Amino acid sequence: MFGWMEDLYYTYRASFLSPVLTPGQSLWFVSKGIDYEFEIILNGELLHRQEGMFTPVEVDLTSSLAHENILEVRIAPVPKRVPYPIDRSQASHVVKPAVSYGWDWHPRLIPLGIWDETGIEIRNSTFIDTLDLRYELSEHFKWADIVLQVQLVANNPVKYVWWLKDPSGNQVFEKRGDCRSCTIVECSIDNPRLWWTHDHGMPELYESVFEILDEKGYVLDRRTTRVGFRRIRLVPNDGAWNEPKDFPKGPSVSPIQLELNGRPIFAKGTNWVNPEIFPGTITEQRYQELLEIARMANFNLLRIWGGGIVNKESFYDLCDRMGLLVWQEFPLACNNYPDDAHYLSILEQEAVSIIKRLRNHACLAIWCGGNELFNSWSGMTDQSLALRLLNALCYRYDRQTPFLPTSPVYGMGHGNYVFKWEGKEVLETMIESRNTAYTEFGIPGLPSRSVLERALPVEELFPPRDNSAWQSHHAYHAWDVMPDTWLCASLLEEYFGKARSLDELIEQSQLLQSVGYKAIFEEARRQKPYCSMALNWCFNDVWPAAGNNSLVAYPKEPKPALGAVSASCRPVCASARVRKFVWTAGEIFEAELWLLNDRFTEAPGVLIKSYLIWGADSQFLLEWHTPNLVSNRNEAGPTLRFILPSDMIGCFSLRLEVVGHPEYDSEYTLLCRGNKAMAKKDTAIMNV
Hints:
By secondary structure, the chain is an alpha+beta fold. Helix content is 18%, strand content 33%. The strands form 12 sheets. It has a 6-stranded parallel β-sheet. Strands 33-39-38-35-36 form a 5-stranded mixed β-sheet, with no helix packed on it. 42% of the residues are buried.
């Protein structure tokens, strides 16, 4: 529908009168992001040409100014590799997010143009060009050695003043001196207050202010930044050195245990995708409202998926303040990116810009080359020049932050993405899995009626049909492996029968999504310490999707599954390992009891009581006095067994109540089918 727009040139044009500039002042065009190939033209004169949307643009306009001026930004058409099919492979030669070329959850709509803050500004002849604050913590966090490197644009030396305030606003130190074109200032502070994720402490941030002054003390320029003192490492998972077991011994599973300030934390989180189809429309408020939902869901890590954009600065500022870690991927995804010189030169330009912009953020936990680059559909390896380049650049410019070539690497898992796959429910699949990290997994679910009513014509709302608006909004044929994804209508009918209304269909779909996500997150946690991470696919929709694996429907409406996931990610919670969703009346129901604990404190044991609830009936099953809670360790408990009543049909619940700690309670919804053999036997007895 919108394909004709991809091959056009676009021009932004603005007219302005030249401002009055005092001696030593200049006028600059400044942009944080223009997508993707473009030219900057002032009064017909070409001043700048660039390929790449993540490298900021700064152009001095002063010498080309007239009294009346016309400034133009000319955008080239969408870059497309030819001859290639009309899909994401068209982006396999550019450093542009591939998602907009079409994905199983994103329509083909390819943005072009200005997407981040842009304007003109008056600058003094002396100004701060770059400022980089780096630090090193002592082994036991008793002090921090800080190095501030400043690059100026200056004709003459100037004075500087630099001070640091602690999170309470108290000034820690102040330094003054002479500042030249390149200046390095060093200092040390004792007992820094550490930055933690919100679930392990406080995200403590210091404020750094650096000013340059002329000989009269007039402030020429100022940079204010926030600093979070923390140490992040990726270390081998527990038992990783034991694999592979055979000789000759190859590489063990890749380290994916996050260690924050010496503490091995379990990473609970999600895959973040840009919250709008058109990045230029994303605001700080849009980021904030979604990130607050993520934090309330007990998440502590967001994987910024390589098919999307590198987010705007306000996103990382918010993650710093909220105590959310960020796994940042470069814009490579599911393609075989080439080794040719032009692509690598643009990749290097863009990667350096990205690294330098983000490296000082406390939230930054991992650099990653991109998404699914070692898979058969991508065909890249650890010898691909693009990945070797990214590793080298991360080492050169930010060696303290861990680097992964792609996700997944050996030991980690992606998938699966539906509730039932090849005859197995996800509850069983997860119990049989053994991965160091589950960095993508999904369960589809419908959004609310109100979202569907905004997305679909009223006459097509129910029943859902193939070759309708349901399909264009990804309920059918979105994922080529299964024709009815992401609605999964055939599975819903298998479990619940044909839905009689749209509301009933929504309820069925949302129940399966909640059950599936709860099972995956809790089973991943039960596999700790060998497993150290669980990140679902995905957090949010970018448009009103009719079906998706997302937890938050567009624009910011949590699905019921988010509540289930939030409960599963509590620092401490009672948990049950249930091996399947569908049971049969008269069958022996089994569930293993667990107490999941991610806290780094000791605590007394608790009493857990278990109940089975169906209709108006309930049955007490057993109680478990857990051992004392040991720091960051789960406890496995007894297995409960109960013969399901012969008259049980429909949904039933397993409820775990923690005496004195209702905040640890958990509940599991399951499905029971009638037993035909038992029904026939009962009928025969009645006839007698």
